[in-house]
Amino acid sequence: xxxxxxxxxxxxxxxxxxxLHAAAAGVLRHPGAAIRAVIVDLDQTGGNxxxxxxxxxxxxxxxxxxxxxxxxxEQETDVGFTADFALYRLTAVEEQAMGGILRATAPGDERxxxxxxxxDYEMEMSYKKGFYGHPNVGAHFFASELPKLPPEHSFSxxxxxxxRELVKGGRPRILLAGSIFGGTGASAIPSIARYIxxxxxxxxxxxxxxxxxxxxxxGAMLLLPYFATTRxxxxxxxxxxxxxxxxxxxxxxxxxxxYGENKVFNAVxxxxxxxxxxxxxxxGGEGQNNAAHLVDWLGAQAVSHxxxxxxxxxxxxTQDGHYLYNLNLTAPSAEGKTLLTWDSFPDMGLRGGMARxxxxxxxxxxxxxxxxxxxxxxxxxxxxxxxxxxxxYFRRVRADEEREAAVRGFRAAxxxxxxxxxxxxxxxxxxxxxxxxxxxGEGYAVxxxxxxxxxxPSNALVDGALLAxxxxxxxxxxxxxxxxxxxxxxxxxxxxxxxxxxxxxGEYTFEALNRxxxxxxxxxxxxxxxxETFLSSLLYACSVQGERGV
Length: 550
Prior knowledge:
alpha/beta, two-stranded parallel sheet, 18 helices, 45% helix, globular
């Protein structure tokens, strides 16, 4: 049974980013075939799209290292990065205004009707960077253009995979994820779902064809309004987000979920918030690089739930399909604070998985990364200090090409942890003020080399002061090059790794980490395998003790 997730629009790209970090943390567990991740966004230059594509590549490199080390290990350990992803795209089509599509696809009378339904601006607008909050334009585009995509198109390839699975009587699991208050997500999710539903006519089982999804298990992860924008040129009106979401919800209530041949979705997830974060107004391109948000994180957990839940559990004929989950926030304080804690989330393994990644990022920044990579890169005499860790993993790496392979591994890790630290910091920065201890404008200020500044709030999830130091270190780290930057300093101490993530018991000093990392057996010889076994051992050492059985 194949698994397919369509990440639609800018919000979909942000959910893909969160999903990859969830997989890295081991929260998303998907053994077997790769998850087909399909990016649907006509804005090829979008900042959030580029971030998601880059992270997909970095995740694949990290997973390859961990998988190679696990294959050589005598005993497999769970250190995350288990789910595999194969990336497909619907990001490039022939640019054409709405009027051109109508002239090519609609008879004369229908074109006249269309002119009454679309404004002059909508008839002539370019969709090179999306649909600018005009889902009516996007809906017509997807309905008319998807069937015309050539067979060699990436989107056509994934559709052919779904069709072949249905022909064999399979039950592909398909989720469409995006927002319903903009343009691309609001128009593409129902259009693509209907397109897939039509493919189910090729299912050889007539009973399956009559069921919801036609034999496929189809879900939707819908983001409700969670942000507003600064004032812009009026192309996108944030004041219309709520009204558009209401109209979309009426559609899903009427036609989207249920039992019968005209229904599409087996399951629908919805995430939103009354407390809106304000993003800078942007109509697309590189400038649309919105910070990560809690709804992305919750959306990723919905992706995990859909992909790992028994499909037979979805039975709209006998169940109403409604399940309400509220974040379990703390009781209101005297200041009106209702803090977000690790206990607020439904997945109890979330804290341990995120803690493992944060600890590994901290360990590399504060101790391991700089001396090892600097020695490997030839900037010092090779392993001048010869401590226990470098003796265990890297002493036998002598040839220049083998050293270069190990350095490339460290740089890939540096790039990944840069993106992870950026992401989790942005999630905290964009939380509603009531969810964190500090008030707006307070917290721990971070001045960056590029002149920017962020304030990391005091919160109940991680130590804000330490995260601020870690954030500055990685944001200033050039292209993952640990050797180009001295170890994390300032108010950071190696022992502080114990308090980096709140609410976890156990001995998490660098001394304990060193003992664990050095205790792992290593027969590595080549530079690449030396780094692979080191990375896997470090992630294991940073795991929650209760989860690793020690």
